[in-house]
Write a structure and sequence with these properties.
By secondary structure, the chain is mainly alpha-helical. The chain has eight helices and no strands. It folds into two domains: 72 residues, no CATH class; 126 residues. The N and C termini lie far apart (76 Å).
C-alpha cells in the first residue's frame, strides 16, 4: 500500500468505533443502547469521525499510510471529541469569514470618511465628526473581537481606528474637538498594533503607518 485511500480511512474508523463499544463493555461502562443498536451506531459514528479527523482536522499525509490509518482508527475510537472539534472548527471558520467581511466594510468606511473630513465645510463638519466617533467605536469593538480570532486583523483595525480619530482631530479642533479619551484609546490601540508588527520586524510598512498615526494623535492632544 503506497497511500491510504478514503475507503481505508472509513474502514479503520469503523473498526475504531467498534473497539470503542468493546472497550466500554470491558471496563463496565453502561451503553445507552442495546448491543444490536450500539454496535451499528458506533461503527457509523467511528467511520464518520475518521473522515473528519484525517481529512479536515489533521489534514494528514495519506502517503504515510500506516500513520494515516492509525489516526483513522483512533479518531473512530474517540469519535465524540472528534465531532466536537469539527463543529468548533466550522464555527470558527464562519466567524472568521464574518470578521473578514466586517473588517473590509469598516476599513472602506474609514478611508472614505477620512477623505471626506478633509474637505467638509464648517456647517456639515459636526455631523461628520459624530459619524467618525461612531465609526471609531465600531472599529474598537471589532478589534477586540478580532483579537481572539486573528491578531493581524486586530492590528489592522486598531490602525484604522487611530487614522479615523486622527483625521477627525485634524479636521477642525477649534470647532469640535475630539475627546481626549478617544485620542488616548486610539493611542493605546496603536501601541498594541506596533507590538504585533514589531515581532521579528514582520511588516516595516505597517510600522511606518503606525508611527505616522501616532504623530498625528500626539499633535491632536489638548495642550
Amino acid at each position: 500500500m503506497t497511500s491510504a485511500q478514503p475507503w481505508h480511512v472509513l474502514l479503520l474508523g469503523a473498526a475504531g468505533g467498534l473497539l470503542a463499544w468493546l472497550y466500554s463493555q470491558t471496563v463496565g461502562q453502561p451503553a445507552a443502547l442495546v448491543w444490536w443498536q450500539a454496535i451499528p451506531a458506533g461503527v457509523l459514528l467511528g467511520a464518520g469521525a475518521s473522515f473528519v479527523g484525517v481529512y479536515l482536522l489533521a489534514n494528514a499525509d495519506v502517503r504515510d499510510a500506516k500513520r494515516c490509518l492509525a489516526l483513522a482508527m483512533i479518531c473512530g475510537f474517540a469519535w465524540k471529541p472528534v465531532y466536537e472539534a469539527g463543529t468548533a472548527l466550522v464555527k470558527e471558520t464562519a466567524a472568521r469569514q464574518d470578521l473578514v467581511k466586517e473588517v473590509r466594510q469598516l476599513s472602506e468606511a474609514s478611508e472614505v470618511l477620512s477623505s471626506e473630513l478633509a474637505r467638509t465645510g464648517p456647517e456639515q463638519l459636526p455631523a461628520k465628526l459624530r459619524e467618525a466617533e461612531g465609526l471609531a467605536v465600531a472599529l474598537e469593538h471589532a478589534s477586540r473581537t478580532a483579537e481572539r480570532i486573528d491578531p493581524e486583523m486586530a492590528a489592522e483595525l486598531r490602525l484604522k481606528q487611530a487614522e479615523t480619530v486622527g483625521a477627525a482631530a485634524a479636521a477642525a479642533p477649534e470647532l469640535a474637538p475630539v475627546s481626549p479619551m478617544a485620542i488616548e484609546g486610539s493611542r493605546r490601540g496603536l501601541l498594541e498594533a506596533r507590538r504585533h508588527w514589531s515581532v521579528d520586524n514582520r511588516d516595516q510598512a505597517k510600522l511606518r503607518d503606525v508611527d505616522l498615526a501616532l504623530k498625528k494623535l500626539e499633535a491632536a492632544r489638548p495642550q
